[in-house]
UniProtKB/TrEMBL annotation:
This is Acyltransferase family protein. It comes from Novosphingobium aquae. It comes from the Bacteria. Keywords: Acyltransferase, Membrane, Transferase, Transmembrane, Transmembrane helix. InterPro entries: Acyl_transf_3_dom.
Length: 142
């Protein structure tokens, strides 16, 4: 929801673009914040709500405003292409791995398995190419 709202609020040219190596901070900030919030005392629900409504929205705005040098844009596009396969596959893979392993070893195995599965799915999708829509092929009825 935050991304949709920010896309409607942020107009091209109306926001300050951050240049230089500060874009690395925009990439690291969500990870560092998520790790840091795990150690805060207090109500988990309140921390989760604050993370979603405030911290992630601010980090998303910051990332949108950062300019990425051209030599990194191709790599970041490839990593961005993995985001949906990771989102779609992480829960079933983590569930399978947690039944088999435990502790830090299970987390490492799960992270590797999710990454590998996402890479395989992305590569397979690239080989298949765009999936044609059946609706687009039918003529419109008048």
């Amino acid at each position: 929801m935050a991304g949709v709202l920010l896309a409607r609020v942020i107009q091209p040219g109306l926001h300050r673009e951050f240049d230089g190596p500060i874009w690395i901070l925009a990439l690291a900030l969500p990870v560092l914040t998520s790790i840091g919030l795990q150690f805060l005392p207090g109500n988990e629900v309140a921390v989760d709500i604050a993370m979603v409504l405030i911290a992630i929205s601010a980090m998303l705005w910051f990332a949108i405003c950062c300019g990425v040098p051209g030599r990194y844009s191709r790599l970041l596009q490839a990593v961005g292409g993995l985001s949906f396969p990771i989102y779609a596959l992480h829960v079933p893979i983590i569930t399978l791995v947690s039944d088999r392993f435990g502790g830090i070893q299970g987390g490492i195995v799960a992270a590797g398995a999710v990454g590998l599965a996402a890479c395989c799915v992305t590569q397979y999708a690239v080989l298949l190419g765009p999936i044609p829509s059946r609706r687009a092929a039918k003529p419109a009825l008048l």
